Amino acid sequence: xxxxxxxxxxxxxxxxxxxxxxxxxxxxxxxxxxxxxxxxxxxxxxxxxxxxxxxxxxxxxxxxxxxxxxxxxxxxxxxxxxxxxxxxxxxxxxxxxxxxxxxxxxxxxxxxxxxxxxxxxxxxxxxxxxx
Length: 131
Hints:
Order of helices and strands: HHHHHHH
Radius of gyration: 19 Å
Low-confidence stretches: none
Largest sheet: none
Distance between the termini: 22 Å
Helix content: 55-70%
Strand content: under 5%
Oligomer: single chain
Structural class: mainly alpha
Mean pLDDT: 89
Number of helices: 7
Number of strands: 0
């Protein structure tokens, strides 16, 4: 999306764009990890109730209904049969890649898996992100 918007205004240097986006997204990833570390540390003496629940993207894609059930269970909320049916209807009407599949290439943007893994290692470690 960033590339599409940038393309409207000028010629794109994809390598510059790739490195710029790694810098920007990396900044926000670092801020999120810092926030969660501080929040988790400060709230650990609370009633033991967790304010956040982290959901792996892969779990949401592979088992969306079961993942939603886990979220509702985590926050001690009922997932009614009616709401579950609405989730299922939405998923049936909106399958992944409904509007086409996006192909991404690190190489196209002058990046490598090693660069991404090193830059986001703190985030992926803290949130236990699986490849």
